[in-house]
Amino acid sequence: MGGAELIHLPLPVLLGALLVLAGCWLLALKMLKLALAGEQEPQQERDWSVPVIDAAAGGSSIFHRWDVRFKLVALLGFAFLVVATRSPWSALVAICLSFSAVLLAGLPLARSMRRLLAMSGFLAMFLLIMPLTAVPRPADTLLVFSGLEYLPFNLRGLQLALAIIGKACAVALLMEPLLATASLPRTIEGLTRLGVPEKVGQMILLAHRYLFVFLEEARRMATGMQVRGFRRRTSIATLQVMGNYLGMLFVRSFERTHRVYDAMQSRGYQGRFPAPAYFAVSVSDWLLAASWLLLGLALLLFDRLWLGGV
Amino acid sequence: MHISDGVLPISVALGSGVASLAVAAWSVRQTDADDLPKVAVVTASFFVSSLIHVPLGPTSVHLLIPGLVGVLLGRSAFLAILLGLLLQSLLFQFGGLTALGANALLMGVPALACGLLFSKLRGTTQRQHVIVGGLAGGGGTLASAVLLALLLASGGEDFFGVAKLALLSHLPVFVVEGLVSAFTVSFLFRVKPELLRQQRLGALS
Questions:
Q1: pLDDT tens across B15-33, in order?
Q2: What number is the ipTM of this complex?
Q3: Which of B10, B44, B96 sits opposite A84 (nearest CB)?
Q4: B171 CB near a chain A CB, below 8 Å?
Q5: What is the SS3 assignment for chain A?
Q6: Which residues constitute the domain of residue B60?
């Protein structure tokens, strides 16, 4: 393996490290469950009029007062600057910046944590695979565990994986300040003013609304199937039932949507919802956007020049 | 089948973002205003189907249905997939903001190809519909898995292992998808064949 530096370690070190990792993950799951338990509302009839993305849209933080267009451009630009960095240390700084955005916006932490957990499976795969599959280079440090000599553990691979995980977390933490600090129609209106076709905005609103209806429908149908004795197995028959299930979901959703769309048109819908949205640009909008982009730029420069973009 | 933020090199993330914006703009122009409800339905169903799990031996896989989206929507399929992925990322953090373009390309381009394949070869009999539908469903997933592996591999030789693993793990999914799509097309052919017609959606002919 070239001139790579080899460090031999006994196997129990690896097992211990794996145990600690699994423990941390379980603890995070447990804590999230506790945090969400407090958020659960009593079971009552579902209120379809409440979309879930923008649950905290009523706040009054600096993010809530920020013009949606500036917020979208600045935070999206910041996200791209963050993913352009290469070192795990800059990713850590980015996480701190994004986390301070969540705190500044006064948003509940549980929702942001749920986002992080949703990605944890995919990212854990990177953490496991990258150190084992990264190609050894002369300057690398390889850990070799006794009994597993054929599977060297490349520390540069671990560094790569940690950088990826850090960047993914930093961007994920930005999502709540980006989306939850204004109502969804207002965010869409901002997108439209930025040049996204109106049709697309309407589609997002419609699809977002239908999504929950269809999820409920899918759940109802699945319950019906189960009550009638359907059990999922690895068999062609199961696949046939799933195919029919999906087809029925399409048919029902389509018919429902068509009825709703006809009703909307007969009430004068012409491709947009008349929503009064006032957009007034102030100096603070510019300042806030500029400071976020400058922060991102500074981070990228720091990463490339100082840390040498490992 | 999602790439999350931070995985792709910045040039690939930006490039695929620009490319998918261009394809999406074309897809929007091909979508008639009267078809918005249908596109919204398939967008939402695309989202929901990723939560439907099919058991496979000791584990289970969730459906991706890029091929089926293509079959149902033709040229509007790319728009539906882009928006479905956007909503998945906004609501559940599946995929990511900066990788949205790459994710849309890797599922949307196969969807467009499958839509074209289906409209050309569907014929008139149920048998032929089912065979072509199954091919489109399986082929769409296979093509997506290959694109996923290629995009992951763009990170350099250190990412080849991850890319190979991603490709391998999707091989069983591709068989499941092909069969489920075939059954779904067969169901729609018998129950509501007009859903399989793409002509108002800017026919692919």
A1: 999 999 999 999 999 888 8
A2: 0.88
A3: B10
A4: no
A5: CCCCEEEEECHHHHHHHHHHHHHHHHHHHHHHHHHHHCCCCCCCCCCCCCCCCCCCCCCCCHHHHCCHHHHHHHHHHHHHHHHCCCCHHHHHHHHHHHHHHHHHCCCCHHHHHHHHHHHHHHHHHHHHHHHHHCCCCCCCEEEEECCCCCCCEEHHHHHHHHHHHHHHHHHHHHHHHHHCCCCHHHHHHHHHHCCCCHHHHHHHHHHHHHHHHHHHHHHHHHHHHHHCCCCCCCCHHHHHHHHHHHHHHHHHHHHHHHHHHHHHHHCCCCCCCCCCCCCCCCHHHHHHHHHHHHHHHHHHHHHHHHCCCC
A6: 10-200
